[in-house]
Amino acid sequence: MVQGQVEAYRVDYMAYPTLEDLVAKGYLKENETTCPNKEEIVITNGGEVRPANVNLETGTDS
Fold first, then answer.
1. For the whole model, what pTM was predicted?
2. What span, in angstroms and rounded, lies between the C-alpha atoms of 27 and 12?
3. Of 13 and 55, which is predicted with more confidence?
């Protein structure tokens, strides 16, 4: 769901958002900024949504 909202924001503003941007502009609710297991998520500079503890180089948990 978050990835879809990132893409919607990118289309509207021609830039990738932060989680804070998505909440501030109404794309997400405050309680939608974590995974279902409450793990923190991040949005990379390229707009990819991923769990915060995943190592980008290996694709595994940090």
1. 0.81
2. 11
3. 13
Locate all alpha helices (DSSP H) within 1-62, ordered by sequence. 2-13, 19-24
User: What three-state secondary structure class fits 7?
Assistant: helix
φ and ψ of 8, to 5 deg: -60, -45
pLDDT at 60 (0 to 100): 54
Each domain of the chain, given as residue ranges in start order, spans: 2-51
Could you give the 3-state DSSP secondary structure of residue 30?
helix
pLDDT exceeds 60 at position 56: no
d(CA 46, CA 62): 20
Phi, psi for residue 45 in degrees, rounded to 5: -60, -25
Contacts of 30 (CB under 8 A, 6+ apart): 23
Q: Per-residue pLDDT for 57 more than 90?
A: no
